[in-house]
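hey can u check if this looks right to u? its 440 residues, i copy pasted from the old doc so theres a chance i mangled smth
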Amino acid sequence: MPRRGAPGTKRSSSAGSPKTRRARGTGWEPYPTSLRIVNWIKWALAGNELAPALVHSLAVQARWLRARLEWHLLGNHLWANAKALVFAGSFFAGPEADAWRARGLEMLRHELREQVLPDGGHFELSPMYHAIVLEDLLDLIQLSRRFRGLVPAADIAAWSECVPRMMRWLQVMSHPDGEIAFFNDAAIGIAPNFDTLAEYAEQLGLGGCPPLADALVVLPDSGYVRAQAGPAVLIADVARIGPDHLPGHAHADTLSFELSLHGARVFVNGGTSTYERNRERLRQRGTAAHNTVEVNGSDSSEVWASFRVARRARPRNFLVDSHAGVLRIECAHDGYLRLPGRVLHRRIWRLAANRLEVEDYLTGSYSTAIARYHCHPSVRVTDDSRLQGPAPVRLRWRCEGASAHVREDSWHPEFGKALPAQCIELEFKRSQAVMRIEWD
C-alpha cells in the first residue's frame, strides 16, 4: 500500500490478509494496536525514516484493527481505535486508506458527542483518561494540518471547539503541583499534565488557559467541585461514578476529596498502581482507599473484578455557597441505602483561608462507620493533634463524635509504585462526626 506523498512506493502483494500468523498475543489486541499505529506514524511524520518492512506492517495492523473495533468495550478504547484509523487513513493513499479514514471520522463524530460532556469533562470521569483524550484531539488537529484537505472542516471545527472546554476541566482537576487529582482510575505518568497540554494547544494556535480566579468552580455535568481559599485548594467528588453502561474505571469514591496547602498535597486518595485482577486492585478501588465514609465495611458502590461495578452510589441534594469568606459544599449519596439499615451519607465541607471542616451525617442504622483521611507520604501525624508536612505546611486537627486512630497506609501515584504513608481513621460514636483542620 503506498504512503501518501510517496507515489513511487508499490503495494506489496503480501500486505493483504489480516489473518497473518504473526497476529497473536497481547500486542495484537485492538487497543495496543491502535496506540502503536498512531505512535509509528507520529514518529515518521516527525522526520524519522520508517523501513519498508515497518510501513508494510503498519498497513497490516490497520487492516487487522479495522476488522476488530472494540464495540464491546466502547469508551476510550473505541475512541483510540477511531483515532488510529484516521491516522492510518491519512498516512496511506488509496481507496482502502480513504475508507479507514472515513470510518474513523464517522466514529469520532459520534464519540465526541457522547464522550465529551458540556462542562468539558470526559464522560468516564477519570482525570487521567480525560488528559489522554484531550491529547488525542490535539494530535488529530495537528494531523489535519499535516494532510490538508483530508479531514472535513466541520470535524476540525468540532475538535477545536472542544479543546478549550477540556483544557479548563483539566485545569480545575489538577493540584497546584501541576498533576491530576486521583478520582476513579488515575495515575501520574500515563498522560501529559495540564502544563504540557496547554503548551501543545498554544503551539496549535488554540489559545491559552487563564489562571483560575474563582474561589468556587463547579463542573455540573461531571460532578466535581474545586474550592480555593488562601493557600488551600480542595477538590471534591460529588459525582456519579461514571456512565451507567461503562463504569470500568470507576472507584467507590463518592464524596471523597483531596486537599493541597501552599502548593503541596496534604490529603490524597489512594491512587492506582495496577489493573490486574487481584486483591490489591479491588482494595484500591474500594471506599476505604479514599477520603470518605465506609459503612459496615462495605463499599459505597459495589466494585468487583478489575473493571466491574454492581449497585452504585448516586449523589443527591448537592449545593454550594460562599459566605463571609467560608466556601461551603454539601452533598449526600444513596450508596448505603441497599444495606439492611438503609443508611444515607451526607457530607458538608467548609473551607476558609486558615481551616477546613468536614462534617459527616449518617441516617439509618449501622454497626460501624469510619471516615478516613489519607495523608500524602510527605505528611506525618506527629501526635494526636498535629500534622507535619513540607514547610510551610503545619496543621492542627481534632475530631468530634468519633474516636481517632492512625494507621500505616500506602499511596500509589504511578502504576507499579507504592509509597508508605499514614491514614487518620475516625470511627463514628454517634450519627455525626466532624474533622476540623487548621493551619497558620
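The helical segments are 30-45, 52-66, 75-91, 95-115, 127-146, 153-172, 194-203, 279-285.
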